[in-house]
Amino acid sequence: MTGSSSQSLLGPVQRVVLVVAALVLALVLTMMRGGLQSASPLEQLARRSLTPDVALSNGRPTLLEFYAEWCQVCREMAPAMLRLERSTQQQLDVVMVNVDNPRWQGLVDRYDVNGIPQLNLFNAEGDAVGRSIGLRQEQELSLLADALIQGSPLPSLQGLGRVSKRANDANQQASLMAGPRSHG
């Protein structure tokens, strides 16, 4: 009889140990995945983003990214963009513009967005100085941010175009031939 009574005592103790172990494991996994903040880096950037008009008029240089939530390259670049945004606070505005949001259609047209991610680069006066379409690695993003913050010429990177005042005016008058969703 002592054998069966010791089994009944071990059952509840084992259950408590298993529940505690499961809670500890869940806590460790939650912390490894970024804590209780369940939003993806892209969602975090979008939530933290200033509106373009505020960013372009506050006296700081601006990196404006046109993106979409379904864009794999945008999601791949988002962790580096989030680190950049956090490391350059009060020096550079990182602004996110979702091309699928009708609110931003005027900006999509104005900046001739025909592929994503598209980065439009602005100096502290709000003047367009460069544009890039496609994936940028973290080191490239840092080089771009440093040039914008220091007011120096943009680095020579493949796929990076510089924008002059004259070209910017022409872009604003040009008709949009293809939309950002036309590129896969």
Explain what the structure shows.
The chain has 184 residues and is of the alpha+beta class. It has two domains: 1-38; 41-182, Glutaredoxin (3-Layer(aba) Sandwich), CATH 3.40.30.10. Helix content is 47%, strand content 14%. It has a five-stranded mixed sheet with strand order 2-1-3-4-5. A hairpin with a 5-residue loop joins β3 and β4. α2 crosses α4. It is elongated. The N and C termini lie far apart (72 Å).
Counted up, domains total 2
Average pLDDT taken over every residue: 84
* Number of H/I helices: 7
Q: Radius of gyration from the CA trace?
A: 24 Å
Might you state the CATH topology name of the largest domain?
Glutaredoxin
What's the N-to-C terminus distance?
72 Å
Q: What would CATH call the architecture of the largest domain?
A: 3-Layer(aba) Sandwich
Could you give the order of the helices and strands? HHHEHEHEEHEH
The main sheet comes to: 5 strands, mixed
- Low-pLDDT stretches are 167-184
* CATH homology superfamily name of the largest domain: Glutaredoxin
> Per DSSP, what share of the residues sits in E-state strands of 2 or more residues?
5-15%
Order of strands in the sheet with most strands: 2-1-3-4-5
Q: Roughly how much helix do the residues carry, as a percent range?
A: 40-55%
What is the name of the CATH class of the largest domain? Answer: Alpha Beta
Give the helix/strand class.
alpha+beta
Tertiary shape: elongated
